[in-house]
Amino acid sequence: MTILMFIGGLIGLIVGAELLVRGASKLALSFGISPLVVGLTIVAFGTSAPEVAVSVGAVLDGNSDIAIGNVVGSNIFNVLFILGVSALIVPLVVNIQLIRQEVPIMIGASLLLLALTLDGNLSFWDGAFLFSLLIAYTVFLIVQSRKETKAAKDEYAAEIKPAGAGSWDAKLPVQIMLIIAGLGFLVLGSEWLVDASIIFAKALGVSDLVIGLTIVAAGTSMPEVATSITAAIKGERDIAVGNVVGSNTFNILGCLGLSGLVSGDMGVVMAPSLLAFDIWVMLAVALACLPIFMTGREIARWEAGVFLAYYVAYVAYLLLATQQHAALGAFSIAMMSFVIPITVVTLIVVLLRRGGSPDKSA
After folding, report:
1. Which domains, and CATH codes, for the chain?
2. Is residue 33 classed as helix, strand or coil in its secondary structure?
3. CB 20 within 8 A of CB 46
4. Where are the extended beta strands (E) located within 25-181?
């Protein structure tokens, strides 16, 4: 029964996100809002709707570990797993705007989260600050979009087409119902997923935090998985990368911003292990995007393999640490003394050989 609840919750999140994105994007375009703005805001934020639903629901239920673990784990999963799998399918092109603007913003959001939570708590006012930054970021994108070239706008218009006069989702009532149904599925799916995850954690002797960092994080990232892999297969490789970077920024500013706002006087309590390890992994993954993205402005297959290998290593470390396995010490020494330093040196060498800067001709 618990497994069925978990699967049902996951399906609810995926269906809810799809309905919400479809309804909101069609509604926005029906009112004449720029396709570029819709692509950068509604669709990007819509794929992160499951993270919002789960994190806010978990805070309201008093499960801070799942709330914060879901966001941190999703950001790690998005870069290491989703970009890894997508780039294995086809090397991913990195848009110059991502290198110059979006990745630095993602890194800045990660650093800000670390600074706000060093005291072990994400307070109501911390959440309000994060969410206000999300609003400012969205306004900035809207203003910036008015300066975009016609070619850029046509690219987004090709991805998100307004509903045709005779299509089933062309009418305003249908679009509103899609949004309402999407929100309903998200709320129900998040409740089932969180409840099932808590039962799993207790049955397996695994902490809520580890469940949030792994199973729940991967589950709520399914819309990003579908979007990026589909984009890679279709040859829309810049969209595959942009989806991940945009979602990571929204996860921090939006998901945790709202989580802090609904947490009340207690705030969202940060587990010591999260502050000591996982949030630093999230920051390191964000920082690693810059040198990898700048090497020829694409994510090569060997770099994708490194991403995937590190995600496997991260999950293995979490499981070994949870069980206090005898192999944990040797595993940690191998990673810190050999694997990570070799990877860093390799990236630096590749970056220097390719000039150390993005292609200025883009």
Report:
1. 2-165+176-353 (1.20.1420.30)
2. coil
3. yes
4. 92-93, 121-122
Who contacts 55 (Cβ-Cβ below 8 Å, separation ≥6)?
Answer: 66, 67, 68, 70, 71, 255, 256, 258, 259
Q: What are phi and psi of 106, to 5 degrees?
A: -60, -45
pLDDT in tens, 39-70: 556 666 777 778 888 889 889 888 888 889 99
CA-based R_g, the chain, Å: 20
- Residue 188 and residue 326: Cα distance in Å, rounded? 40
Of 308, 324, 306, 125, nearest in space to 210 by CA: 324
Q: What's the pTM?
A: 0.78
d(CA 59, CA 334): 37
Average pLDDT over every residue of 348-362: 54
Checking if the pLDDT of 165 tops 60, the result is: no
Q: Please give the residue that has the higher pLDDT: either 332 or 160.
A: 332
**pLDDT (tens digit per residue) in 176-202:** 888 888 878 877 887 787 778 778 777
pLDDT band at 361 (very low <50, low <70, confident <90, very high): very low
Closest by CA to 148, choosing from 298, 40, 42, is: 40
User: Quick one: which of 167, 169, 141, 166 has its CA closest to 156?
Assistant: 141
